[in-house]
Amino acid sequence: MILDGAREVDRIELSGDRDVVRARRRIADRMDALGARALRKTRFVTAVSEVARNAVVHGGGGVMTVYAFKSARIGIECRDRGPGIASIEQALSDGFSTTGSMGHGLGGAKRLSDAFEIDSRPGGGTVVRMLGSL
Amino acid sequence: MSSAAAIYPVEGVLLVSIRDDITDTDIVDLQDALSERIADESANGVVLDISGLEIVDTFVGRVLAQLTSIARLLDAETFVVGMRPAVAMTLVELGMYLPENRTALSLTHALAKMRQMRDE
Ligand SMILES: Nc1ncnc2c1ncn2[C@@H]1O[C@H](COP(=O)(O)OP(=O)(O)O)[C@@H](O)[C@H]1O
Ligand SMILES: [Mg+2]
């Protein structure tokens, strides 16, 4: 698991679109405090925005946990108890959406993070973990 | 629409400034409000100032592209100004090229380009 050895430092409830804004603000502020470079922060916070929105829109709400490392990295875990994803491969491909939106979010988050893990199965909710460097 | 976005008329152009804490709901409301105002005020152009946005994700990117298409149908040209370099690089990585959007470095540049287009 990519969050092994990390310490939990924050937890953000995700139930509506205001919480998506709150999640990206809290993670951007933390990355600023840790001295992250502008591009690295923008990339990771954009990835956070995508997975947080997915938890709200597709997962019916969830929780994002933020992790700190001893090294120059930050991690998040986004967990929901929604319907899960039937085909992760399909969900990751650009243009695939079950709601008629862009379908670039999940694959985009994977490209924008330094490490990406997803656990999901139909009926079993979805967990996404990501790492970003500072 | 909440205070997360504001629309100001300047020289026949609607200047829209978008704040970083804008929610998905707010930006969809902005799309409605702006479409109405372009028609009501017979605006020649729209300038979307996104210098306040630290990130533009796929949702906001899609709305920016749609705003441009709507404005064009209403005979108004749209310029996006103030996109941060990190935002541009991230949008490309997301596969969001926003081909419909014209960009300008600043509001002054956008207004000058629009005047030029009108004079041609
Ligand atoms: N947390 C989630 N729970 C259930 N399904 C999800 C979740 N995240 C993503 N998906 C599925 O993966 C698809 C692709 O996601 P994404 O690339 O973010 O595109 P979009 O959100 O625009 O549909 C979604 O349409 C949805 O079917
Ligand atoms: Mg999405």
Automatic annotation (TrEMBL), chain A:
It comes from Pacificimonas flava. It comes from the Bacteria. The lineage of its organism: Bacteria, Pseudomonadati, Pseudomonadota, Alphaproteobacteria, Sphingomonadales. It holds the Pfam family HATPase_c_2. Residues 19-130 form the Histidine kinase/HSP90-like ATPase domain. This is Histidine kinase/HSP90-like ATPase domain-containing protein. SUPFAM superfamilies: ATPase domain of HSP90 chaperone/DNA topoisomerase II/histidine kinase.
UniProtKB/TrEMBL annotation, chain B:
Residues 3-114 form the STAS domain. The lineage of its organism: Bacteria, Pseudomonadati, Pseudomonadota, Alphaproteobacteria, Sphingomonadales. Gene3D superfamilies: STAS domain. It comes from Pacificimonas flava. This is RsbS, negative regulator of sigma-B. It comes from the Bacteria.
